Amino acid sequence: MPLQWMLQIGLYAVGVLIVIAVMLGLPALVGERYWRKAERRREIATGVPYESGIQPTGTAQIRLPIQYYLVAMFFVIFDLEAVFLYAWAVAVKETGWLGFIEVVIFVAILLAALAYLWLIGALDWSAQYQRPSLHRVHRLQAKERGDARVA
Fold it and tell me: Does the domain formed by 66-132 have CATH 1.20.58.1610?
């Protein structure tokens, strides 16, 4: 009985793989892009983007402000924190005091990271409050030392 059962599972797996191969391979072989019809390549409108009947103006590549990426990274970090804390809250009875201590350490590390971000000015949106680059700091310190020698 187990041998027959294993044979059925193996045949099923092979059948599923064949279906997946056909679903992925057949459109590539039958589709228009595979054969690259020459009459379609020569048309002018082939390379022009179509945006709901509106002619595109300008470039599609825009530069987003760095704050957008900072907020996205902070969201990912603290969203994952919420997921881990939720998983702990579901299993709080099984983890006991050891689980509680681990969660306290986890939250303490994240709070330390948040405090560090706050101290360096990563959470401030205006440029005047953000920490200057190290190159600029060293240049200002050298200028102050030079001014102190003159005085």
Answer: yes
